[in-house]
Every structure is written in structure tokens, then in C-alpha cells.
Amino acid sequence: MIYNPAHVKKRKIKSYIALSLSTVAAFLGLFWLGFILYDVLRHGIQGLSLELFLEDPAPPGIEGGGLRNAFVGQLLIVFYATIIGVPLGLLAGIFVAEYARGTRFARTISILSDIMVSVPSIVVGTFVYAILVKPVGHINFGGLVAVGFLSAIIAVVFGWFLSFVLSKLFPVKSATTGKFIKLLTALFTTMFGLFIFLILYPKLVDRIQGFNGWAGAVSLAFIMIPVVLRTTEDMLSLVPWTLREAAFALGASYYNVIKDVAIRAAITGILTGIILSIARVAGETAPLLFTSFNNSYFTLDMNEPMASLTVTIFNYAMGPYEDWHTKAWAASLVITVFILFITIVTRTIIGIKYKK
Q: What does pTM read for this prediction?
């Protein structure tokens, strides 16, 4: 190849132009991010006080009071949304990346997850409203679904415990014995789930109706699931298959390979996806407007309408009182700092525990 100084100079100019445009774009994005953070900090710090966290809202038009009900409600809703959404997203991501790897079913799930990630949150809120909040005739469909979901979770935990006990008491010595134990476990798990449903149905189903905190948690969980699923799938797909083959060669089962090899290798990315999903739902307002609604009073009962910080910020920002505006800015600052704190702490723990 003949060295051509003009050609080399032309390529360097193109590289310099591309690098300059990329740098300008990066600084432009950082500028607006910094501007937003500065604006939230400048306005929000004025409304910070102990009363904001320890007192309930004052009547409209009267200065003072705090947002204790909204802080507690937001924490409860996001906590239960995480309990519901993260395990489902993790299990679905592991199934798609490992057990259904390369199949048409896995590709379909991935495409649907990408669609769900881009669906506006208000659509999720209206969907959950139609399923869990709005009554269907004389049937409390929301309570029915909630009790059924709770019974299924209890049954799954019972099935896992039963399978663990049976595997210790009756070691599997043949494929036929293994299939029989699995069938027996599935049968007892199903019967136990139905039994729990029949017990909980008369006690809980009529209490879970209308706007309630559970519906808000479910709506946020719907948003979290596809984010966690896609992140888990992508991170597990990046783990080389040769690592799995090495574990298989040592006699490890597929379950142990996934738990001790694949997930451990991809844990940093998976936990990052979980943090991103929590940060995503922590600032959502639209789904909660249709599900948990709002409550001007302090409550810990998830079966009732529950206040949330995001909905309170929306109401206060649209209100006519200057004191409400100050509290809205302070609440916005608290959410921002909370997400930043969770991100820094989690990344620090990941860096210490899984340091390469």
C-alpha cells in the first residue's frame, strides 16, 4: 500500500471533526443535566425542613405542615413494586437468556419487552385501573386478581420448600423417580395454592377495591418488569458459553451453572438494571393518578387510596399557593437525592464485593 500524505491528512480532519461534534454533544447534554439539577437544588433547598418529613399536610391555603404521608406512601408503593417486579423480571430474563435461548419464543418475548419499555406510563396506569380499580359488575375483580396473585406467590414458596425437603429425604436415583417427585411436588403445590386462595378470598377480596396502594404498586411493577427482563437477558447473553461448558464438564447442573457462573459473571449489569428500573418508577406520576390516586391523610393501609410524592408534587405544582410550590420543589429535590444516593451506594457495594 502506497503512503499518501494527503489521504492521511483528510482522514485526520474527518476524525477531528467527528470527535469535536461528539464532544460538543456530550457537553451540551451535561449542561442541561447540570442546569436541571442546579434549578432543583436552588429552589428545593429553600423548602427543606424537619417539618417537611415529620408533619402531615396543612389545610389548603394555610402555610406550614409537611409531606410525611406522601414520603411514606411513596416508599411503600415503590417497595412493594420492587418486591413484585424485580423477581418476575429476573426470572423472565433468566428463562429467555438461558432456557429459551435462540428460540422463536425468546425472540417474541424480547420484542414484546422492548415494546413494553417504550409504552407510555399513562397507558399502564389506565390498564391497571381497568383491571384492579374499576369494579366489573358485582364482582370485585381487582380483589380477586390480588388474592389470586398472593396465593400463587405463597404456593410457589411452599413448592420450593417442599421440593428442597423431598430432595434431601429421597435422593433421586433414576429419571423415573425424579419425574415422579416433580409431579408430586407440582400437585401438592397446586392444591396448597387453591387452599390458600379459599382461605384468603373471604378475608381480603372485599377489602381490596377502588383506588388503593396495591394497584399503584402493580402499575409500577408493570413498568419495572420489562426493564429488568431486558437488562438481565442482555447481561447473561454476554457471558461466554465456554464458562458454562467448563462448569458442565465439572458435573454441575444447569441450575448451579446459572446461579454460580452465569449470574455471578453478569451480576454487575443485572444490579445496574434493577437500579435503573427503581429510578424509572420512583419518578412516575401518571400510573399513580389512576391507581393509588392520592390521600391527604397519613395511612399505612395499602387497601386504601394512598398518597405518593410524585402525585403530591403534581398537585402542589399546579396549585395556587406559593407554599405548595416551595414544598413541591423540596419534594423534587428529595426524590433526586434519594435516587442519586441509592445509585452511589449500590455501585459502591458492587465495586467492593465483585471487584475484579
A: 0.79
